[in-house]
Write a structure and sequence with these properties.
By secondary structure, the protein is α+β, with helices and mostly antiparallel strands. The protein has a domain of 87 residues. 39% of the residues lie in helices and 17% in strands. The protein contains 13 helices and 13 strands. Helix 3 runs antiparallel to helix 4 and helix 3 runs parallel beside helix 5. It is globular.
Length: 391
C-alpha cells in the first residue's frame, strides 16, 4: 500500500486534477510571491524549532533568515505582458524584504512568552519519553559495533561481550520529528509534556494572517492522524494543540504631534503600548490609556490562540479510515491514468480554491492550447523544491 503525506492526502481529497499535476506530473509553481504563506510559515517553523532547542532568540531569528536567504534568486524576471519581453520580478523581491522583517518580528514577540521550557508549564518531550527506547548501544564499547533494537536490554554484546545497554536517542527532542510508518509519512512540529495535567500533547505551530473559526480547527485531521501514528508506535498521546499565531503582531504605540495617545491605536494591546512608549513618557497612567482607547484595544488572545482537542479511539479510527480510503482511491486513480482516463477537476467557481494550477485549468485545459509554454514560464519539477519546503 502506498505511503502518503498529509499534504498529498488533502490534495487528492480536494481536487484530483490538482493531485495529478502535483504528484504524478511532478509540477509545482516556480518561486513566486504567490507562495508567500508557504515561505512565511517555513521560516517561522525553523525559528520556533531552533528556539525550542536552544532557548536563544537570536539563533531562532538567524534560522528563519537562513530559510529566507535560500529563496533569494539573483536577477529573477517575469514576463512583461504590457510592454513585451521580460522585467524584474519586483513582487518577489518585495515579498522577501517584507518577510525578512515580519518573521523575525513575530519570533521576537511570541517566543519569549511561549510557556514551553525549563520551569514553564510545558517541557519538550524526547523520543524515548514518547515512543520508548528502541535503539540501544553497549555501555562498554559505546556502540562502536551493532545497534540493538528492542525494548529489553540485550544479554551480551556481540562485539565486546559486555553486558548492559543505553538508549542512543535518550536526549533527542521531539521537534520537527520525521516519521515514516506504514502508509503515512511526515514531520511532527513538536510533542510537549504538560506538567500540570501530566500528559503528552502533539503540537502544530501555525502562523496565520487570521484565525479560522474554532470548530474548523477542531475538525482538522492532521494532528489526529499524526497522534494515531505515534500511538501505534507506543506513545500515549491523549491531546493535540493547534497553536496559532497572528502574522501581524500588535503594533507599537502611536502618538499625536503633542505626544498624547492617538485614537488610531487599534491593532494593538495595552501591553504593547506600554512597552513601546518613549522613555520617560508620563502624560497618562495605564488605566487612563485603557479608558481613553476603550474597545479599540485588542487582547493577547487576538494574536495567539492554542486550540486543544482530545485524541481518543474514535478520532483515531476516523483518521485511519480517512487515510486508507484516500490511499485506495489514489491507487484507482493511478490505474485510470495508465488507461488514459482524465482525472476530474473541481470546476465549480463556488468551490474551487484557485490553487497553484489554476493557470493550467483556465487556459490549457479549458481552451485546448498547448500547455508547454505555460508550464515553462510558471512551473518547475517538484524535485527541485528544497526539502525544508516539501509537504
Amino acid at each position: 500500500m502506498e505511503s502518503i503525506s498529509w499534504s498529498q492526502q488533502t490534495t487528492f481529497a480536494d481536487c484530483e486534477r490538482k493531485w495529478e499535476l502535483n504528484y504524478v506530473a511532478g509540477l509545482e509553481l516556480q518561486p513566486s510571491s504567490e507562495k508567500k504563506a508557504l515561505y512565511r510559515g517555513s521560516a517561522f517553523h525553523a525559528g520556533v524549532a531552533e528556539y525550542l532547542k536552544t532557548g536563544d532568540i537570536n539563533k531562532a531569528i538567524l534560522s528563519a533568515k537562513d530559510i529566507l536567504q535560500e529563496l533569494y534568486i539573483p536577477n529573477k524576471t517575469v514576463k512583461d505582458y504590457d510592454n513585451g519581453g521580460r522585467k524584474a520580478d519586483t513582487d518577489y523581491y518585495d515579498m522577501l524584504e517584507e518577510l525578512r522583517t515580519d518573521v523575525p518580528d513575530a519570533l521576537e514577540y511570541y517566543l519569549p512568552n511561549l510557556p514551553v521550557g525549563e520551569g514553564k508549564r510545558y517541557r519538550i518531550a524526547t523520543v524515548c519519553d514518547v515512543i520508548g527506547c528502541h535503539e540501544k548501544i553497549c555501555d562498554e564499547c559505546g556502540g562502536s559495533g551493532e545497534v540493538y533494537v528492542g525494548d529489553e536490554d540485550f544479554d551480551t554484546c556481540e562485539d565486546c561481550e559486555g553486558i548492559g545497554s543505553s538508549c542512543i536517542r535518550h536526549d533527542e527532542l521531539m521537534i520537527e520529528y520525521e516519521f515514516n510508518l506504514g502508509n503515512v509519512h511526515g514531520f511532527i512540529d513538536a510533542v510537549l509534556y504538560d506538567t500540570e495535567l501530566s500528559r503528552y500533547i502533539i503540537v502544530d505551530w501555525k502562523l496565520r494572517t487570521s484565525f479560522p473559526y474554532t470548530f474548523k480547527v477542531e475538525l482538522d485531521g492532521q494532528l489526529q492522524l499524526y497522534a494515531t501514528v505515534l500511538n501505534d508506535m507506543g506513545a500515549g498521546i491523549k491531546s493535540a494543540i493547534m497553536w496559532q499565531f497572528k502574522a501581524g503582531i500588535p503594533k507599537p504605540v502611536k502618538l499625536n504631534k503633542d505626544n498624547s495617545i492617538s485614537l488610531n491605536n487599534k491593532s494593538t494591546t495595552i501591553e504593547r503600548i506600554m512597552s513601546t512608549l518613549p522613555y520617560g513618557w508620563d502624560l497618562m497612567t495605564k488605566d487612563e490609556i485603557l479608558e481613553h482607547l476603550g474597545d479599540r484595544l485588542k487582547t493577547h488572545a487576538d494574536f495567539e490562540e492554542a486550540v486543544e482537542v482530545p485524541v481518543n479511539e474514535f478520532s483515531m479510527n476516523i483518521a485511519k479510515a480517512n487515510t486508507n480510503a484516500v490511499i485506495r482511491r489514489i491507487a484507482t486513480a493511478r490505474r485510470e491514468l495508465e488507461e488514459g482516463v482524465q482525472l476530474p477537476a473541481k470546476v465549480s467557481s463556488f468551490h474551487c480554491n484557485f490553487c497553484d494550477f489554476s493557470r493550467l485549468c483556465a487556459t490549457a485545459f479549458t481552451h485546448g492550447v498547448n500547455p508547454d509554454e505555460i508550464i515553462e514560464e510558471y512551473y518547475q519539477p517538484r524535485e527541485e523544491r528544497p526539502m525544508k519546503f516539501r509537504a
